[in-house]
Amino acid sequence: MDLFVCAGCGAELSVPVERVALPPEAHASNPHAWMPALMEPGTYAVDPDPWGRPWRHREEIGASEAAALGVYAPLYPVATGPRNVVVLAPGDTRGTRLLPERSGDSCLGVVAGDEPGLLCAGCGLGVGFREDDCGVWQTVRYDPGAVVRRSLGVPPPAAPVRPLPPVDPEGHWDVRWTAAAGTALARLLAASGGRALRLPAGLPTVMFGRAVERLLPAGPPFLTVGLAGPGLPRTDAGIVLVPADRRTGEPWRPAGDAVPVPLPAPVWARLAGAGETSPTPVSGTLPAQVVRDDYPHPDRPAYLFHPERSTLRRTLARMPEVRQPWLRALYDRL
After folding, report:
1. What are 271-278's contacts with CB under 8 Å, separation 24+?
2. Minimal CB count within 10 Å: which of 11, 67, 194, 224?
3. Are 137 and 40 in contact (CB under 8 A)?
4. pLDDT digits (tens, 9 = 90+) for 72-91
5. Model's pTM, two decimal places?
C-alpha cells in the first residue's frame, strides 16, 4: 500500500491506496451521460502515456516526434503533457482544495484546465486536476512532479475477481465492456495479420463479430480465436482472449505459440463462465405467493453491441504495428 504526499510540504494527499493497472476505459467518454469514478476505492493507477495539455495535431509534430510520444498514426488531438500522471478516485484524496475557476471548457462540472485546479491545502502548491463533468470519468490526477509516493510497507488486501455483467443497472451496455472491447479489438486486428477470424460463440461474437466481419476478409481459411486462462482447458486457437493481471495489466501467458489478447479480469471472468455475479449469493427459492421486486438483470440490451470507437482508434494509433500498410489502411477506414 502507498500514500501520496505533497512534494512541497509533505502533507498527506491521499488515504492508503493500492497500485493497479490503468483501466482500458480511462480514455473513453460517454457524452451527455453521468459517469462514475474511474478507479475503485482504495486503488490508484499510473498513466504511462502523456496526458493533458498542451494538445497538438499529429501532423503538426511530425512522425518522429509523434513516435516518441507513442503515436504511430493520425490521432486528434495528441496529448503532450506529463507522463506517469497518478490517477485516483476523488474520495481517496485528502488535504486539497479545489479552484473551480481554473476549470477548462466544461458543461456542468469541472475539467482539467491550463493550470492545476487542485492545490495542497497546506502550502498552496498546485498538485493536480479534478474532473467531474458530464461524459467524463470522475477522477483526480496528481502531477507526478508535485507529489511523492511513500510505500507503507503493508501488503494490499486480497481482492477476488468478480465477473462484471455486460449490462449496467440502467439496461445499457456497460461502458467498461465497450471500452475493453475497443482495446481488445485493436489487438485482435493486429494479431490477425489481415486474415479472417473465427470467434467463439456467445458473448465474444457479440463483442467483436460485427466489427470483424466489416474490417477483415471473409473466410475460409480462418484464424481461430479462443478463450484461455486459469481453470480453462488448453485450446489450439491461434489467438486467445486471456485475463490481464489486475495489478500490472500484463496478459496471462498461455502455453504454446498462441497470441494472447488481454481483457480486464472481470470481463474475462464473465466470458469464461458467468457464475454468480451478486456479492451476496442466495440459495433456495422464494416462498409461494411472494413476488420479487428486484427484477432479474437483463442479459443484453435491445440494441447491438459496439466496441468503443475512440478507445479502438487510440489503441491502434499507439501500436507500432499500425505502420504496416494493411493495418494502416484498415485504421484509415475507421
Report:
1. 271/202, 271/203, 271/204, 271/227, 271/241, 272/227, 272/229, 272/231, 272/232, 273/163, 274/163, 275/163, 277/162, 277/163, 277/164, 277/165
2. 67
3. no
4. 998 888 888 999 999 999 99
5. 0.88
